[in-house]
Specification:
With 467 residues, this protein is α/β, with parallel strands linked by helices. It is 21% helix and 31% strand. The strands form 6 sheets. Strands 1, 2, 3, 4, 5, 6, 7, 8, 9, 10, 11 and 12 form a 12-stranded mixed beta sheet that branches. The chain has a 6-stranded antiparallel beta sheet with strand order 19-20-21-28-23-26, with no helix packed on it. The protein has a 4-stranded mixed beta sheet with strand order 13-15-17-18, with helices on one face. It is globular, with a radius of gyration of 24 Å.
Length: 467
């Protein structure tokens, strides 16, 4: 069996404003109804794959579990990384946790698009023999254009389906990419790797030994947290922030490449989404709530049910609107959207990283109005969802149930409230909100007071073991 290791802790800044640090692209349905993470899980379901290991951040642990459950996927193991340190420590932690030194691990990003699962399985099985023989196997995609947003793999001129890797080249300029494509012995680097646990640990021992002791300590000090496995935090903090490519692979001599001829995209920007949505030539891709008039080679997208996007006479543009931000950019500058995120972050704009909608393990909340004296939120609690037993020093709360049934605790009093009923939670009162039914519960919360930050929460009990 081959154990998939799915990496899904990234922030996806090049797909802003739909993808943000608080809820990144791998969990957003960019193409159709499923998210890239769900599509990745499906891709490695069934033989020859074991249930996956998911490497993710603490903030996303419940999202991972919910999205896997939504597609009926085997739960596997969800490992919580203490901090984002790029892919090198994550992959070493997976190798050290494998149990059997000869176990094969298949490392995949959670945000790629591949439309032929059978072809992918065939490529993995071709690489498995090399991995069992002590090779670190990478997967290369046959390029169909001189793409500057991808890394490249150089193969020998007479390379077959599985061949040695000569070298990596990271994101060439347009002229260099064109020369590579013309040469015929270059593939796109898919960022997918197959190896035995023994081989990867040995590679770190040789090329990046500084990772071994702290990552091993983080693995050995891991503890169970509900349905998750939380790596020990202290050893993790001083680790170098490097990708597996820079830390190990570019120095290793035992690399092989599997040529994968199936369709692939890393969904690395809005240009890729335009293309994966069927965009070619002058085609306009206009989603729901979008109107294009005399436009060419343009992407129009609205993520907000109340926002209509209209383009007139546009060419080679991407226009993406959410409830609190709008991106308008040249399609050729898709890779530079991250620069906008950095600029927004530098001036303290909340839209750089956060959404108006805040996903929680019990459901989600969304800010509808905010001023110095009040904040209005819509709160949706999923069936069986339980907010923590908590209090606030600086605000009182008024709750109006819109639909469903709420079980409300205030001090020692517990009562049920249905649609069109309301309840007042005084400032400083210990309280809790629950949905005891099998249907979603929706309420409007009006906060009044002097401060509405999320750090004005004192938790006494929490069903989800949050601090």
């Amino acid at each position: 069996m081959i154990t998939p290791v799915i990496l899904c802790g990234g922030s996806g800044t090049r797909l802003w404003p739909v993808s943000r640090r608080a809820y990144p692209k791998q969990f957003v349905p960019l193409l159709g109804d499923e998210t890239p993470f769900q599509a990745t899980v499906r891709r490695v379901a069934g033989a020859p794959f074991a249930p996956p290991v998911i490497m993710t951040a603490c903030d996303f642990r419940f999202v991972v579990g919910e999205q896997m459950a939504a597609i009926g996927a085997a739960p596997g193991t969800i490992v919580i990384e203490p901090d984002a340190r790029n892919t090198a420590p994550s992959i070493l932690a997976a190798a050290l946790s494998a149990g059997e030194p000869d176990a094969l691990l298949l490392v995949l990003p959670a945000d790629h698009a591949m439309d032929d699962a059978a072809a992918f399985r065939a490529s993995v099985e071709r690489g498995a023999r090399a991995a069992r023989a002590g090779r670190i196997v990478t997967f290369g995609i046959v390029p169909d254009r001189p793409e500057t947003g991808y890394g490249y793999l150089e193969l020998p001129p007479d390379a077959g389906a599985v061949s040695p890797l000569l070298r990596f080249v990271e994101k060439p300029d347009a002229a260099q990419a064109a020369r590579m494509i013309a040469g015929g012995n270059w593939l796109w680097n898919a960022g997918i790797f197959l190896f035995s646990a023994r081989t990867m640990v040995a590679a770190f021992e040789t090329h990046a030994p500084e990772y071994l002791a702290p990552v091993r300590a983080a693995v050995e000090g891991a503890r169970d947290d509900l349905d998750f496995r939380r790596l020990a935090s202290a050893p993790w903090q001083g680790l170098p922030d490097l990708s597996i490519d820079y830390a190990v692979l570019e120095k290793a001599a035992n690399l092989s490449v599997v040529r994968h001829e199936g369709h692939w995209s890393d969904l690395g920007g809005w240009e890729a989404v335009w293309r994966e949505s069927g965009g070619t030539g002058d085609q306009v891709i206009a989603g729901p709530r979008c109107t294009a008039i005399d436009c060419h080679a343009t992407l129009l997208r609205s993520e907000d049910p109340a926002t209509e996007v209209v383009g007139i006479g546009l060419s080679d543009l991407m226009v993406v609107a959410t409830a609190d931000a709008v991106l308008v950019a040249d399609r050729a500058r898709s890779q530079d959207v991250r620069l906008a995120v950095a600029a927004l972050k530098d001036r303290g704009a909340p839209q750089a990283e956060a959404f108006l909608r805040d996903h929680r393990p019990w459901g989600w909340s969304e800010t509808l109005a905010l001023s110095e004296a009040f904040q209005v939120k819509r709160i949706v609690v999923k069936p069986g969802g339980i907010l923590s037993l908590q209090s606030h020093r600086h605000r009182a709360e008024h709750w109006v149930v819109v639909s469903g049934t709420a079980r409300v605790t205030i001090g020692s009093d517990v009562a049920l409230f249905g649609a069109n009923q309301s309840v007042y939670v005084p400032q400083g009162a210990v309280h809790r909100l629950e949905n005891p039914t099998d249907q979603p519960m929706i309420l409007i919360e009006v906060q009044t007071g002097s401060y509405f930050g999320e750090d004005d929460i004192t938790r006494y009990e929490d069903a989800y073991a949050r601090p």
